[in-house]
Amino acid sequence: MPLVSYKVDQEKINQTIKKVLDIFKENIDLIKDKGWIVSEPESPRWWGGLQSGEEIIISSILVQMTRWETVAKVISEMRENGLTNFGKLSSLSEEEIYLLIRRVNFSRTKAKRLKVIADKASSYASIQDFIDDLKGVQGIGQETYYSLLLFVGNRIYFPPSEYGSRVLSRVTSMRIPKLKVKEVVESSLPKDLFTYKLFHAGLVTVGRVSCFKQPKCEKCILKMICNLNKNNETLRI
Q1: Contact 48/70 with Cβ under 8 angstroms?
Q2: How far is CA 122 from the centre of its chain?
Q3: Do the Cβ atoms of 1 and 228 come closer than 8 Å?
Q4: Contact between residue 12 and residue 187 where contact means Cβ atoms under 8 Å apart
Q5: What is the pTM (predicted TM-score) of this model?
Q6: Helices (H), 84-192
Q7: Residue 4 in this model has a pLDDT that exceeds 90
Q8: Residue among 91, 236, 94, 78 at smallest CA distance from 165
Q9: CB-CB contact of 127 with 84 (8 Å)
Q10: Which of 52, 160, 174, 230 is 20 to 30 A from 71 via CA?
Q11: How far apart (Å, rounded) are the C-alpha atoms in residues 159 and 195?
Protein backbone atom coordinates (compact mmCIF):
# COMPACT_ATOMS: atom_id res chain seq x y z
CA MET A 1 0.00 0.00 0.00
CA PRO A 2 1.71 3.21 -1.13
CA LEU A 3 1.63 6.40 0.88
CA VAL A 4 -1.36 8.57 0.12
CA SER A 5 -1.04 12.28 -0.56
CA TYR A 6 -0.88 14.50 2.51
CA LYS A 7 -4.34 14.87 3.97
CA VAL A 8 -4.99 15.35 7.66
CA ASP A 9 -6.79 12.46 9.31
CA GLN A 10 -6.30 14.01 12.72
CA GLU A 11 -7.89 11.19 14.69
CA LYS A 12 -5.62 8.61 13.09
CA ILE A 13 -2.57 10.82 13.53
CA ASN A 14 -3.43 11.45 17.21
CA GLN A 15 -3.75 7.73 17.91
CA THR A 16 -0.55 6.86 16.07
CA ILE A 17 1.54 9.59 17.68
CA LYS A 18 0.39 8.49 21.15
CA LYS A 19 1.53 4.95 20.34
CA VAL A 20 4.87 6.24 19.05
CA LEU A 21 5.36 8.31 22.21
CA ASP A 22 4.67 5.27 24.41
CA ILE A 23 7.31 3.30 22.50
CA PHE A 24 9.84 6.11 22.90
CA LYS A 25 9.18 6.13 26.66
CA GLU A 26 9.83 2.38 26.75
CA ASN A 27 13.08 2.79 24.79
CA ILE A 28 14.76 5.69 26.59
CA ASP A 29 17.96 3.64 26.90
CA LEU A 30 18.26 3.46 23.11
CA ILE A 31 17.68 7.21 22.81
CA LYS A 32 20.37 7.82 25.44
CA ASP A 33 22.75 5.48 23.63
CA LYS A 34 22.44 7.66 20.53
CA GLY A 35 23.60 10.78 22.33
CA TRP A 36 20.49 12.31 23.86
CA ILE A 37 20.75 12.99 27.59
CA VAL A 38 17.20 12.42 28.78
CA SER A 39 17.09 14.77 31.75
CA GLU A 40 14.83 17.19 33.59
CA PRO A 41 12.69 19.19 31.16
CA GLU A 42 14.62 22.49 31.20
CA SER A 43 18.15 21.07 31.26
CA PRO A 44 20.51 21.98 28.37
CA ARG A 45 22.11 18.55 28.80
CA TRP A 46 19.48 16.98 26.52
CA TRP A 47 21.57 18.27 23.61
CA GLY A 48 24.61 15.98 23.74
CA GLY A 49 25.30 16.70 27.41
CA LEU A 50 26.12 20.37 26.83
CA GLN A 51 26.10 22.73 29.78
CA SER A 52 24.36 25.90 28.59
CA GLY A 53 22.07 27.35 25.97
CA GLU A 54 25.04 29.21 24.52
CA GLU A 55 26.89 25.92 23.99
CA ILE A 56 23.85 24.49 22.21
CA ILE A 57 23.68 27.47 19.84
CA ILE A 58 27.42 27.23 19.13
CA SER A 59 27.12 23.50 18.48
CA SER A 60 24.18 24.02 16.10
CA ILE A 61 26.51 26.04 13.86
CA LEU A 62 29.61 23.85 14.25
CA VAL A 63 27.89 20.51 13.69
CA GLN A 64 26.75 21.28 10.16
CA MET A 65 28.65 18.88 7.86
CA THR A 66 30.90 17.89 10.80
CA ARG A 67 30.98 14.85 13.09
CA TRP A 68 29.52 15.45 16.54
CA GLU A 69 32.61 13.98 18.21
CA THR A 70 34.75 16.73 16.68
CA VAL A 71 32.28 19.42 17.70
CA ALA A 72 32.12 18.14 21.28
CA LYS A 73 35.91 18.37 21.60
CA VAL A 74 36.00 21.91 20.22
CA ILE A 75 33.24 23.05 22.58
CA SER A 76 34.99 21.41 25.54
CA GLU A 77 38.16 23.37 24.76
CA MET A 78 36.18 26.60 24.33
CA ARG A 79 34.45 25.96 27.67
CA GLU A 80 37.77 25.43 29.45
CA ASN A 81 38.84 28.86 28.21
CA GLY A 82 35.56 30.55 29.13
CA LEU A 83 34.69 31.14 25.48
CA THR A 84 31.27 29.54 25.35
CA ASN A 85 30.07 32.76 26.97
CA PHE A 86 28.80 35.01 24.18
CA GLY A 87 30.06 38.16 25.89
CA LYS A 88 33.60 36.81 25.91
CA LEU A 89 33.32 35.22 22.47
CA SER A 90 32.15 38.56 21.08
CA SER A 91 35.40 40.18 22.24
CA LEU A 92 37.35 37.95 19.84
CA SER A 93 37.99 38.72 16.19
CA GLU A 94 36.65 36.50 13.44
CA GLU A 95 40.21 35.22 12.88
CA GLU A 96 40.59 34.32 16.56
CA ILE A 97 37.30 32.40 16.47
CA TYR A 98 38.47 30.60 13.35
CA LEU A 99 41.60 29.44 15.17
CA LEU A 100 39.42 28.04 17.97
CA ILE A 101 37.20 26.02 15.64
CA ARG A 102 39.53 25.25 12.75
CA ARG A 103 39.10 21.48 13.15
CA VAL A 104 35.46 21.60 12.03
CA ASN A 105 34.51 21.63 8.37
CA PHE A 106 33.89 25.03 6.73
CA SER A 107 35.51 26.65 9.76
CA ARG A 108 35.99 30.11 8.20
CA THR A 109 32.32 30.38 7.26
CA LYS A 110 31.30 29.16 10.70
CA ALA A 111 33.67 31.60 12.41
CA LYS A 112 31.94 34.44 10.56
CA ARG A 113 28.52 33.17 11.64
CA LEU A 114 29.55 32.70 15.26
CA LYS A 115 30.98 36.22 15.37
CA VAL A 116 27.65 37.65 14.13
CA ILE A 117 25.68 35.59 16.65
CA ALA A 118 27.98 36.41 19.58
CA ASP A 119 27.88 40.14 18.78
CA LYS A 120 24.08 40.11 18.60
CA ALA A 121 23.63 37.96 21.71
CA SER A 122 25.93 40.00 23.91
CA SER A 123 23.46 42.89 23.91
CA TYR A 124 20.65 40.81 25.44
CA ALA A 125 19.98 40.30 29.14
CA SER A 126 19.54 36.54 28.74
CA ILE A 127 19.97 33.84 26.14
CA GLN A 128 16.21 33.15 26.24
CA ASP A 129 15.54 36.76 25.24
CA PHE A 130 17.94 36.38 22.32
CA ILE A 131 16.40 33.22 20.83
CA ASP A 132 13.75 34.99 18.76
CA ASP A 133 16.38 37.07 16.98
CA LEU A 134 18.12 33.95 15.69
CA LYS A 135 15.43 33.56 13.04
CA GLY A 136 16.87 34.62 9.73
CA VAL A 137 20.50 34.58 10.88
CA GLN A 138 22.64 32.93 8.21
CA GLY A 139 23.27 29.31 9.12
CA ILE A 140 20.08 29.03 11.22
CA GLY A 141 17.43 27.32 9.13
CA GLN A 142 13.86 26.59 10.17
CA GLU A 143 14.63 23.19 11.71
CA THR A 144 17.55 24.60 13.70
CA TYR A 145 15.55 27.64 14.79
CA TYR A 146 12.69 25.60 16.24
CA SER A 147 15.13 23.12 17.77
CA LEU A 148 16.81 26.03 19.57
CA LEU A 149 13.46 27.41 20.71
CA LEU A 150 12.69 24.00 22.23
CA PHE A 151 16.07 23.00 23.67
CA VAL A 152 17.49 26.43 24.58
CA GLY A 153 14.41 28.59 25.09
CA ASN A 154 12.38 25.71 26.60
CA ARG A 155 9.42 26.80 24.54
CA ILE A 156 6.88 24.27 23.39
CA TYR A 157 7.40 24.34 19.62
CA PHE A 158 8.13 21.17 17.68
CA PRO A 159 11.02 21.21 15.17
CA PRO A 160 10.18 20.15 11.60
CA SER A 161 12.76 17.67 10.31
CA GLU A 162 13.46 15.24 7.49
CA TYR A 163 13.67 12.45 10.07
CA GLY A 164 10.23 13.40 11.38
CA SER A 165 8.79 13.46 7.88
CA ARG A 166 10.22 10.08 6.95
CA VAL A 167 9.36 8.26 10.16
CA LEU A 168 5.85 9.65 10.59
CA SER A 169 4.99 9.22 6.90
CA ARG A 170 5.94 5.57 7.03
CA VAL A 171 4.28 4.84 10.36
CA THR A 172 0.96 6.45 9.32
CA SER A 173 0.98 5.69 5.56
CA MET A 174 0.26 9.37 4.98
CA ARG A 175 2.79 11.53 3.22
CA ILE A 176 3.71 14.18 5.78
CA PRO A 177 6.14 16.73 4.31
CA LYS A 178 8.86 18.20 6.53
CA LEU A 179 7.09 21.55 6.83
CA LYS A 180 3.90 19.79 8.05
CA VAL A 181 5.65 17.80 10.79
CA LYS A 182 5.50 20.71 13.23
CA GLU A 183 1.76 21.21 12.70
CA VAL A 184 0.94 17.49 12.90
CA VAL A 185 2.89 16.84 16.10
CA GLU A 186 1.78 20.01 17.87
CA SER A 187 -1.85 19.07 17.16
CA SER A 188 -1.35 15.62 18.67
CA LEU A 189 0.99 15.87 21.67
CA PRO A 190 0.12 17.36 25.05
CA LYS A 191 1.76 20.76 25.57
CA ASP A 192 4.53 19.41 27.76
CA LEU A 193 8.23 20.30 27.47
CA PHE A 194 9.61 16.88 28.42
CA THR A 195 7.23 15.16 25.98
CA TYR A 196 8.24 17.42 23.08
CA LYS A 197 11.95 16.92 23.73
CA LEU A 198 11.60 13.15 24.08
CA PHE A 199 9.47 12.86 20.93
CA HIS A 200 11.97 14.82 18.85
CA ALA A 201 14.87 12.80 20.26
CA GLY A 202 12.98 9.60 19.48
CA LEU A 203 12.25 10.52 15.86
CA VAL A 204 15.88 11.50 15.25
CA THR A 205 17.08 8.28 16.88
CA VAL A 206 14.82 6.07 14.76
CA GLY A 207 15.89 7.98 11.66
CA ARG A 208 19.56 7.42 12.44
CA VAL A 209 19.25 3.80 13.58
CA SER A 210 16.83 2.17 11.17
CA CYS A 211 14.55 4.44 9.12
CA PHE A 212 16.95 5.04 6.23
CA LYS A 213 15.92 5.67 2.63
CA GLN A 214 16.23 1.90 2.35
CA PRO A 215 14.82 1.07 5.80
CA LYS A 216 16.07 -1.63 8.16
CA CYS A 217 12.66 -2.44 9.59
CA GLU A 218 13.87 -5.47 11.53
CA LYS A 219 15.95 -3.13 13.75
CA CYS A 220 13.23 -0.55 14.30
CA ILE A 221 11.52 -0.03 17.65
CA LEU A 222 8.39 1.13 15.77
CA LYS A 223 8.08 -1.94 13.57
CA MET A 224 5.01 -3.34 15.38
CA ILE A 225 2.93 -0.25 14.57
CA CYS A 226 4.54 0.89 11.32
CA ASN A 227 2.45 0.54 8.17
CA LEU A 228 5.58 0.43 6.02
CA ASN A 229 6.80 -2.66 7.88
CA LYS A 230 3.36 -4.29 7.91
CA ASN A 231 3.06 -3.95 4.15
CA ASN A 232 6.68 -4.91 3.45
CA GLU A 233 7.32 -1.85 1.32
CA THR A 234 10.57 -0.16 0.40
CA LEU A 235 9.86 3.49 -0.14
CA ARG A 236 12.30 6.30 -0.87
CA ILE A 237 11.03 9.05 1.38
Answers
A1: no
A2: 24
A3: no
A4: no
A5: 0.91
A6: 86-90, 94-101, 107-121, 127-130, 142-151, 162-172, 178-186
A7: no
A8: 236
A9: no
A10: 160
A11: 13
